[in-house]
Specification:
single chain; mainly beta; 50% strand
Length: 271
């Protein structure tokens, strides 16, 4: 009888351990978060797509969709540029649980205009950024990941994006732009200045030849960044000469070949 009871007790203990172990595995799985990643053609000209894996890259190009503007109310200065282009641009692949990233050098030109820095003051072109990194992120809702797809931009090293240089009779000769800034990822309706719908997550199996990055008039001040399958909120803030600043406008992004020429291939930012 005692042997029977001991055997039954062991069986119950093993069953309880199995339940606890399954619960722990389920909890770990529930906490894991899949970061948004890049999906690109499997090969040049292919209609089939694949995840851009860690160590893999694809060239991209960009052009203005809606005119960009940097504004600092504290400085009372605005700088508008009709042309945006990538001097360098590449998508960087990622492993599961890590976000898709970009590496680029951005140029602003085409007759940039300024307001507030003196009537006889002109903007020196091109305005060229340092090496900029960006990551696919999400919006924050109630202290957790939301359902909208964003891209966060920040300098690869240090805090400075660029220095805007002015010539002529100006109140200030240079303005350093620092910090980080986020954009909404939207569909391309090909009807500028009309914007497509913001990408809602999950975005499974949705591909297009071009996507919009829209920097809204009301700045995105917080994003949800996922690394190693764990997400956390991160603040974004842009400054011009240490004063709060906003960057607005929309940019069209497409895949490109090694020469920097856009190509008509489907790709996507996917969760």
């Amino acid at each position: 009888m005692q042997s029977y009871r001991l055997t039954r007790l062991r069986t119950l203990l093993l069953a309880l351990l199995a339940v606890f172990a399954f619960g722990a595995i389920s909890a770990a799985a529930a906490q894991a978060e899949e970061a948004p990643f890049w999906t690109v053609p499997k090969s040049e000209g292919s209609s089939e797509t694949k995840r851009l894996a860690a160590g893999e890259t694809r060239f991209i190009t960009a052009k203005t969709y809606n005119e960009t503007q940097l504004e600092s109310p504290g400085l009372k200065v605005k700088v508008k540029c009709p042309v945006v282009k990538l001097k360098e641009g590449v998508l960087l692949g990622s492993n599961a649980g890590e976000p898709g990233k970009d590496d680029e050098i951005i140029e602003f030109e085409g007759g940039c205009k300024q307001e507030g820095n003196g009537e006889a003051c002109k903007v020196t072109e091109p305005i060229k950024t340092v090496h900029v990194k960006s990551e696919l992120v999400e919006n924050v809702e109630g202290g957790a990941a939301g359902k909208k797809l964003y891209t966060e931009f920040f300098p690869e090293t240090g805090a400075k994006f660029t220095t805007i240089v002015f010539t002529g009779t100006c109140k200030t000769k240079e303005i350093a732009v620092e910090g980080s800034v986020a954009a909404e990822v939207r569909g391309d309706p090909n009807k500028a200045p009309e914007l497509g719908e913001i990408v809602e997550l999950p975005n499974r199996n949705k591909v297009a030849k071009s996507w919009l990055l829209n920097f809204p008039a009301t700045p995105i001040k917080e994003v949800w960044l996922i690394k190693a399958e764990k997400g956390a909120a991160a603040k974004t803030e842009l400054k011009a000469a240490t004063e709060p600043a906003t960057f607005t406008g929309a940019v069209l992004v497409l895949l490109a070949n090694a020469k920097g020429e856009s190509v008509e291939e489907n790709w996507s930012p996917l969760p």
